Amino acid sequence: MGTALAPERRERLGLLLAASTGVTFTIAAVADTLAVRRARRRAAVPPVPPARHQERTAGERTAGERTDRRTPAPVTC
After folding, report:
1. What is the pTM of this model?
2. Could you give the dihedral angle defined by the CA atoms of residues 66, 67, 70 and 75, in that order, rounded to the nearest 10 degrees?
3. H or E stretch including 71?
């Protein structure tokens, strides 16, 4: 038994190498395309506008809002 590669085996090895290289590049191209498409879609979505601050009178409070019950410090001159 010889250890040298037979011509048929050499052809098959070359074919498998070319096929695996092609599959690798195809998968990489598809993954890159999907990543670029996803990044563009994220950039195209407009940001959510900030909530508008409404003017309230001193008597109006929202739920959970506390009243400042501290007393002012006495002014000494």
Report:
1. 0.49
2. 140
3. none
